[in-house]
Amino acid sequence: MWDHRGGYNGGGGGGGGGGRGGGRHWHQRGGGTGRYGGGHGGGGRGGGGQGPSGDSSSGVCYGGGYTSGRGVHGGGGGGGYGGGEGGRGGSGGSGAGVSSGGSGGGALDFSPPPAAARLPADTRRAVDAYVGRFAPLVQMELDEERRQVEERLRQWPLGRLRGEGLALTELRAARRGAYLGKAVLRLAAAEGGELPFHRFTSGTLVTLCRRNPLQERCVEALVLDRGRSEVRLVADSVPADLAEGLWRLDRGANITSYQRMAQALQALYKQPGAAVPGAATAAAGAGADDDEADEEDEDGGDDGGYGGGQDAGPSGNGQGHGYGNAYGGYRGRGGGGGGGYRGRGGRGGGRGHKRRRRQQTEEEEEDNLPPGTHLLDVLLAPDAAAAAAAAALPAPLVPDAAVDWAAANDVAPRDPREEVPGMGLNRSQVRALALAMRHRLVLLQGPPGTGKTTTIVQFIRFLKQELRYPHPILAAAQSNVAVDNLLEGLLGCGVGAVRTGQPVKVREALRDATLDARILAHPARPAIEEQQDALRDLQRRLPSLRGRDRGLGHRDVARAAAALRQARAAMMADILRGADVICSTCVGAGGDTLQDLSFGLVVLDEGSQCCEPESLIPLVKASRHAVLVGDHCQLPPVCQSEAAGRAGLSLSLFERLMRAGVPACMLQVQYRMHPALSAFPSARFYGGRLLDGVAPGQRPPPPFPMPPLRAQPGTGGGAGAGDGGGGPLMFVDVEDGREEVSQGGSKSNRTEAGVVVALVRGLLGAGVSPADMGVVTPYLAQVQLLSSMLVGVVPAGAPALEVSSVDGYQGREKEVMIFSTVRANANASLGFLEDWRRLNVAITRPRRALIIVGNAATLRRGDASSGAAGRSDGFSGSSSSVSNSSSLAGLGLNGTAAGLVDTAAAVGSGGHWAAYLSWLEWRPGGLVVRGLQGLEALGWRGLGGRR
């Protein structure tokens, strides 16, 4: 718990243009020595003093960056929560926290809503602790992303931006019709031909300008799709001179996801379904009516409505709400001070505007937040046992008959591979369904190729079609690709599903199921368009009206606009409420589209890839029952801020609850890989519990030369192509390759890339389609190098060959994969490759064949020097246990292992590459070949030499 010395009843709101506060709470920005004491905003007065810079203290301050001090995430006063005179935040204090003080920009609002005052005291303290833990980490992520975008635009030369694929220049632009009501813009190279390497993919947020996005008014747009010679965008507005001159395209930053994480954290203070009292309250620092603003003293507004001994005092600012001025104080004298925890409400606000609109009431602001979750006891459980017990309570929304069926089927199957008649599922998957129906919150672990999407789809279908489950279901996932997979499966089995979000981010074949497409096809659409035309006509006539007629005209416009909004809302509600399932990304679930909808059941796919605050976004849609699907043995959440990741943001809610013992089930049968490809990951990463649902003959290696997969004496037969033919697995040892470091710090290996290009040539010559093969590598610089070297290798008119990072391939598969490991150095440094989860993802993408290209000596020695690499999660004080066991003598080709770990939580981190290489070399003849010479000795032809 917190150290409350000097901060619990003292300290102060502080911040803003002279805010005063008499207590402290984590959302106040005053001085104090409590853990969340923080510092002042510029010129603010709090318990600790005043000044243009924040005072150092022993806690966290949520100012523009995470200021340093003696606490976990720093003390000091980042100026982000109050602008000084002119709205400028002061600088942060210094010390030994996570990072140095910021300058007052980009602060998110994590303040408790008025509902917080109605929580029981113990629940309030638990929510405070939870939000106080994650709020700074989310802010750190946003700060880091914005810093990266701004830094590269300000400091990187244009050549580097182009080389990293973050900018395209010398583009011609033209309008090419419309897409779902938005303009489509086509951009192509001015000189024609193929575009250079770039990272603009469907759904990417971009800015379009002439020369410099920092100095011009830009057009914001989303990438619709891309081809070899063009990129198509969708935009709300089109420059009048679009067809003239040349244009530049840059990747932009999007803060929406962080804002929705902040709202999800705030929503934890709400009780779903609880009535909001109608009594009006005055926000601390909130402005008065326009006519009253000039009568306020220079310190700002009235005492907070929850001050004077109440539990919360909302913070205020010159603009209306949030912490000071969230973006550095664009207006007036900055924000107001936060109210005291048990003292007087904060005062502040300054005179941000002499004429300003009446602020929203606190109740209106609270209505803009999601409704919260009924699973708060699981999320806030003080220990693992309490979390497991709370999650294991009976599912509240499932009929009794289904509960009885689930109880009968929630047993460990004798043979997980046995198919259940009439369901199209194996026993392992049926048990997962049973578990999901029995308990309030369950975890379904889906290793590679085990059919987790199929299991989710059948779970939802069973509820809707067999059990007539009457409530709407929210099916969410971290990525658009996973949401599309869910949508495709649901539509395929007759479940009525609607996809929210930007249609450009949806697979083209599924776009008719998007909300936008359903709106265009809705029978009320023509009438709404007539209303819209009538409104435009009224607006056009307004300037010509005078006197009383002008006033009446404004009234008519307001009424027509309100009627149009109401009609649109009714149409959207009709579509959404008529759907069985709403499919959305996690971030999309927090959008305005679903604001008025609650979902008793939430199914979250890719749960192990979401940071915990991101997982909350769908869960705070009033969930009573949740199914989290993921695999903590694959890649964890990606964090922009290394400090935030180390402090716990890289630990997913899925993995945290898995460690706590929440009811869980692992899907045990994989249908993707040739059994020889699944043998090592099963033994090493899943304790030998991952079984094969396909025989070697169902995944025959393609017809190109590979080392034969002969049987090890005494193991009872091989798993190759049958009669000693080529097998599905090979490691190409590139002994003379050396890694290089790019301008951005990423790694590449030209010699190794040359071998990859030669392999691609050989595969194409053997008749493998580019669409059936993929190239994966841990480093962006190698992606760029390979992309450039492969230009012209794939024949014109053929499908594109996909080259991507390991992270980009998670959840996907190809018939044949080439894995370029890159690292080759005298220091035996492995970098990204030290993460055993990255190896697991990389080697489990192929169905029929895997070729790994790398420097065996570096991989083997680097593994030995890295040792066990546990990760402290900072949440429960535990860390991932690891094992250095590399004894694979008992590993056969049927996915079993003797003497290895038998739990997925205790996986070999140090030593996994050495173990893998030993396994490859273990059988007669081995599966390791030496460079291009070794490939030629195997019979590869048409390699074409190195480039």
The backbone outline, from C-alpha atoms, is: globular
Termini separation: 60 Å
Question: How many domains comprise the coordinates?
Answer: 5
The order of strands across the largest sheet is: 13-14-12-15-16-11-17
What would you say the CATH architecture of the largest domain is?
3-Layer(aba) Sandwich
Describe this structure in words.
The protein is of the alpha/beta class. It has five domains: 1-144 and 289-369, no CATH class; 156-256, Elongation Factor Tu (Ef-tu), domain 3 (Beta Barrel); 376-496 and 580-664, 3-Layer(aba) Sandwich (Rossmann fold); 526-575; 672-868 and 880-938, Rossmann fold, CATH 3.40.50. The strands form seven sheets. It has a seven-stranded parallel β-sheet with strand order 13-14-12-15-16-11-17, with helices on both faces. Strands 3-4-7-6-5-8 form a six-stranded antiparallel beta barrel. Helix 8 packs across helix 9 (452-466), helix 9 crosses helix 10 (480-492) and helix 18 crosses helix 19 (780-789). The radius of gyration is 30 Å and the shape is globular. The longest helix has 35 residues, at 121-155. The model is unreliable at 1-105, 274-361, 712-724 and 867-909 (pLDDT under 50). The chain has 24 helices and 27 strands.
Q: Layout of SSEs?
A:
Elements: E1 45-46, E2 49-50, H1 121-155, H2 158-163, E3 167-179, E4 182-189, E5 205-209, E6 219-226, E7 230-235, E8 247-251, H3 256-267, H4 362-367, H5 376-379, H6 384-391, H7 400-409, E9 419-420, E10 425-426, H8 427-438, E11 441-445, H9 452-466, E12 473-477, H10 480-492, E13 497-499, H11 515-521, H12 525-541, H13 547-577, E14 581-585, E15 601-605, H14 612-619, E16 625-630, H15 642-649, H16 653-660, E17 664-666, E18 669-670, H17 675-685, E19 691-692, E20 729-733, E21 740-741, E22 747-748, H18 750-765, E23 773-777, H19 780-789, E24 802-805, H20 806-809, E25 814-820, H21 836-843, E26 846-854, H22 856-866, H23 912-922, E27 928-930, H24 931-938
